[in-house]
Amino acid sequence: MIRKPFLSMGMLVAALALSIAAYAVRVGDTAPDFTGTDSNGKAHKLSEYRGKYVVLEWTNNGCPYTLKHYESGNMQALQKQWTAKGVVWLTVLSSAPGEQGYMTAVQENAYLRKENAAPTAALLDPTGVIGHDYAAKTTPHMFVIDPTGRLIYAGAIDDHATTDVGDVKVSKNYVSAALTEAMAGQPVATSSTRPYGCSVKYQ
User: Fold this and answer.
1) C-alpha 142 chain-centroid distance
2) Strands, E, within the chain: which ranges?
3) What is the mean pLDDT of residues 22-26?
4) Mean of per-residue pLDDT scores for the chain
5) Which sequence spans correspond to the domains of the chain?
6) 26-199 has CATH 2.60.120.260 classification
């Protein structure tokens, strides 16, 4: 008699986990639409970018895995390379107030200038709404969306899950590979990988 409630609770937790997994965004799905406000106060709605490739980059400037890609200049180079080809690059900050990586609009704009970063926009997501829509787990965590609004890549930025700046030069960059293949009309060879980095600091 005592064990029954515990079994029921266990089954409830398992069912909830399966339900969440069922609704998690997957490669091949239509990317969840969202509206986010950037560090300049401008609203961005994902569906307004239909017809373009979109990259979502989850970031945290206190995370050593993120710093690896900014201190090496790798992330800025990717942003400039792909936005020059018409790709919309949205950096997303889902750290909650008081947590590592949280930035006000003024702080984020100062950071972007300091790092010479060049995303299309930096979206401030302190409540984590956009992050949870995509089940963003780490910083960085990367997503690539094609012009039809379909998710074609989700996961790590590259194949070296370290904080070593020197590894950037010898890494396979999954984001660049996905964009290059998709723009050439080819299927994305590696469409999903396990993301690495610091956990997103949700509220």
Assistant:
1) 4
2) 35-38, 43-45, 54-58, 88-93, 121-124, 138-139, 142-145, 151-155, 198-199
3) 67
4) 91
5) 26-199
6) no
